[in-house]
Amino acid sequence: MKDSRDGSGSERVTKSATANSIPLILDVEDFKGDFSFDALFGNLVNGLLPSFQEEEADSSDVHGNISGNDLLPNGHMRAPSDVSKLSQGLSSPLFPEVDALLSLFKDSFRELVDLRKQIDSKLYNLKKEVSVQDAKHRKTLAELEKGVDGLFDSFARLDSRISSVGQTAAKIGDHLQSADAQRETASQTIELIKYLMEFNSSPGDLMELSSLFSDDSRVAEAASIAQKLRSFAEEDIGRQGIAVPSVMGNATASRGLEVAVANLQEYCNELENRLLSRFDAASQRRELSTMAECAKILSQFNRGTSAMQHYVATRPMFIDVEIMNADTRLVLGDQGSQASPNNVARGLSSLYKEITDTVRKEAATIMAVFPSPNDVMSILVQRVLEQRITALLDKLLVKPSLLNPPPLEEGGLLLYLRMLAVAYEKTQELARDLRAVGCGDLDVEGLSESLFSTHKDEYPEHERASLRQLYQAKMEELRAENQQLSESSGTIGRSKGASVASSPQQISVTVVTEFVRWNEEAISRCTLFSSQPATLAANVKAVFNCLLDQVSQYITDGLERARDSLTEAAALRERFVLGTNLSRRVAAAAASAAEAAAAAGESSFRSFMVAVQRCGSSVAIVQQYFANSISRLLLPVDGAHAASCEEMATAMRSAESAAYKGLQQCIETVMAEVERLLSAEQKATDYRSPDDGIVPDHRPTTACTRVVAYLSRVLDAAFTALEGLNKQAFLTELGNRLHKGLINHWQKFTFNPSGGLRLKRDITEYGEFVRSFNAPSVDEKFEQLGILANVFIVAPESLSTLFEGTPSIRRDAQRFIQLRDDYKSAKLASRLSSLWSS
Hints:
By secondary structure, the chain is mostly helical. The protein is 74% helix and 0% strand. The protein has 29 helices and no strands. It has helices at residues 3-19, 37-45, 50-58, 80-87, 98-199, 219-242, 248-285, 288-298, 305-313, 316-319, 321-332, 341-369, 373-396, 412-437, 444-450, 453-457, 459-489, 509-529, 533-575, 584-634, 640-681, 702-721, 724-746, 753-770, 776-788, 799-802, 810-817, 828-831, 833-837. The protein is flat and about 160 Å long.
């Protein structure tokens, strides 16, 4: 309730409660707004319970002095007055206001019921009134909808009427416009016929024409009329020429119009020349407005083609000879000097920038003057490329002959190819710049491409010929260097009867790298000149095959030269093989010569290993180049990559064959020296020392020590040069040959037990060395040799049990047993016959 109402209501309630005879008065207004039931209830009972408010205020003061006995049975605290009342025996009622409150509550309930009935009555009346008003409103809305629908129908009929009237007016307007156009056409036709009659006078007589055709201020109108008359006359003559003239009138008309056409042609030519002269005069004075006026009029003559071509042809860049000579000097330099590609590139960049700037300036004028500037720009750019650029390229690119190419001292074919690449690249840049400036519908890139068509058609042949020329020149240079080196060092003299040739020219990885660099430059030109993937792949494949041929031939020749050195060393060894029944002096001289031949063999062995190593490095360089630069250019074409890989393998087969043969010769050279050392150093007493009680010598024999030292020294080059499967195959073959050679060598000696121990020590020394070969099969053979050496150590009666666990070596054991010094005395042949038969 509102405060004012709460106050008045509570006041009335309090008075009613106090009087107890006056009924409660509750107003509906008391329940509106912010109604609070607590406030209403408080106002009802506060008048009857004044002590309740006072006790409530004092409750907090006595709360702390309450003991356990002050609690009532219902849980409430007992006030001090209550205690005193209890002490008096409860002589009076506990709640004397209960009757008054009960009466108050009953009166309040009765009045609240009355208020509810009043409210319900008011609500019923309001609902009834709202229902009546809603019915009226709906009726009004229905009437309004009918009125609106009628209004819409009226508007639709009005719109249809307006549309009909508009269509009628449009038709009338079209008829009027058509009639006006026909009237205008008739008027113009009459006018044209009058002018046509003037031109149909005597041939070549233009003096009697109307002032229109001689008035300079009406040139545009005169040109337009003349073109119309000319078109009409030529069309009529064309019709008469197609139809068969059957009457005299047609023939006469044709002859009359032919006169008119001739006069009109003469007049148009004279007018066009007059306009071109005026255009030229205005161009020299830079009067753009006059130039634009003349160009607009001239556009009626052949669409202005003559004016466009005339303007372009009169540009200084096309008629000034000094400008053309300056172009040549800027690009090629002074006459008589040989231009370099770098200088040409700088000259072309400067010249093409100047041309682009000139065209850009002309474009500004053309935009301001000509009604069709794109057509003029197309003619201008085409003239620039076909005249100015072509004239320069003809002087710059002189195609050399493939049958008689220019010498490399003058640049050779490579100079032409570099010039071609520079000119092509710079001209393509010029085309892009001109496209940016504007060239109408002209395919400027295609036109610039066509300037090089004759050069590009024969480009692959020139590229391959250039690579061949470079290779031949390089080979001649290397031969000259080798010859000079041989002459400066002199020939190696004879030493104790053995002559040794000078070391051959070695393969150079630097030279192969130079081959690759040539090819890489050629591939870059292939990429520049070949726009289609198939063409590019074909050119790249052809150029790369040149590299394969060059590298294959170069390394094969290098390997063959190294093989020749091995062959010469082998020939020297054959010359100084020791014979029998020689004097001591001759034997000593032959031995010395044989050592010199052995030194030559070792040197040739090392040279060949270096050649093999460099050959492998060269092939690796080519393979890496193919993977990095070539393969990606071949992949777009099916089969090109695989075919090129096959060709690469085929090209290297000759080198592989030479390397294989050379490695076989290296093995022969090593084994020949091993055999020489064994023959020269091995003594019969090494394996048959006397049993004089001296402690046996457990050191390797001198021959073994020399052979192992030689092998360690000479094979160091093989370990460095070879790798992978090549190294494994070479060392395995050498190990097998060494095993066989040692067995054949030991077949020449007889062995006692102490000699067998010495032999076993040699075998251990050989086995430890060949273990560095990492060849399991070779290691196994030398282990079996160690087992075979036991046949010289054990007693004869123990031989039968020696090979019971290893039957695979019985054959070699049989040969070794025959080398025992007691083989015959101990009758080992008959004793072991049962062993061999089993």
